[in-house]
Amino acid sequence: MSFRSFHRGRFLLALTTALTGVVAVASPAVADPGGTPVTAAPLSVAFDTAAARYDVPRDLLVALGYAESRLEMHASTPSAAGGHGLMHLASNPGVRTLDEAAALTRLSPAALRTEPTANVLGAAAVLRSYADQAGLTASARDDVNGWFGPVARYGGASEPSVARLYADTVYDLLRAGFTGRGEAVAGRPVAPRRGGLERAAVLGGIGTLSTDYGPAAWAPASTSNYTVASRPGSHPVNRVVIHMTQGSYASAVGWFQNPAAQASAHYTFRSSDGAVTQSVREKDIAWHAGNWTYNTESIGIEHEGFVDNPAWFTDAMYRASAALTRSLATKYGIPRDRAHIIAHREVPGATHTDPGPNWNWTYYMQLVNGITGIGSGTVTTEASSLNVRSGPGASYPVVGSVADGATVSVYCQAVGSTVTGPYGTTSVWNRIGTNRYVSDAFVLTGYDGYIPNVPRC
């Protein structure tokens, strides 16, 4: 069945909403060019409807959205690649998923950019069109492992290794399982059929490693996106500039390979595990700061995520990035202070706000300066478990729990509300994970309060 003949009309979403009994009040209706409103729905209904309408595996659709945005719309903040919404529908000279979605769904580009329901529908329509072009039959579409090629194409990367990275990220999420924004996708065995991309080099594998910084993979940016130089001979290197991608890791790496980008960074870090890819040699001038002098004299480091969502700022990414910055400071004699390790927003003339107010400079700079220890302790509580909170204080929301007697890692320590527990009264709180805190009054660490060589948050 061709994609065009599969299109079932503009009334289906409203009909599905009516059948499920869901009344959406969070968002206005989306009008298509024919004037029929497409009612905005809760995210779960949006995924249900899009998956059914375009015969795309639902969990695959959710995983792609989670990889791109953690299922956040970020409607007012497109990515550097011109990607919009939770599904990163893009419109740039190399990737036209937004335009394709508009043609396939007959929804307006404005709706596709800003309305979650439309955004998910658009992504599903594009994926289905790619599946049809790849020759996936109805039975083949039922097997999630057959969608690797369409997913890789959706990412828009021009280099096979980055296209594989993009799709592998989605399938890794399906394998591990994840939760976010009310969506819970259980892990399962996956064996994606990569086709020609099976032969693509795996970033970070033999032959794809950086020669400037050992832990980094090498995925060169387009030569249209940076200036060849011979630093530090041609220009001093005296700053490090910290950025946020406003998008996913694979999308950022792929964007730098697009000749139309007119932008690049030397390094990009992944949120989940601190993996890093180099796109521009340190001797060359990346176009990242929006200020030529700062470009010529700095190293630009991108970090996966969005400025308004601190969940992207993991300890793994902080520590891996700080290790690189520490190495750069040693190599080029850059002072390890905030006058020389700066935010993009601190560059003269900057129009960007990254890395934003949620970036923990205190923690990062301590890591850069070698305070890199990780403490440990044993939780002690009279109850069966201890509440874990999103910040250093009893007024922060509970985001989980940890069992009595459990051993926890302490990545950094912060001053918060005063609490009394088995180990006295204290205002010290221990961060045991990304946005996860417990009071030191309930943790036996072997120290009274602060743990030596563990950073302050």
Automatic annotation (TrEMBL):
Protein name: N-acetylmuramoyl-L-alanine amidase
Species of provenance: Micromonospora jinlongensis
Top-level taxon of origin: Bacteria
Chain ranges of the SH3b domain: 374-447
Keywords, comma-separated and alphabetical: Cell wall biogenesis/degradation, Hydrolase, Signal
Entries under SUPFAM superfamilies matching the protein: Lysozyme-like, N-acetylmuramoyl-L-alanine amidase-like
Molecular function via GO: N-acetylmuramoyl-L-alanine amidase activity
Segment forming the signal sequence: 1-31
Catalyzed chemical reaction(s): Hydrolyzes the link between N-acetylmuramoyl residues and L-amino acid residues in certain cell-wall glycopeptides
GO BP terms, alphabetized: cell wall organization; peptidoglycan catabolic process; peptidoglycan turnover
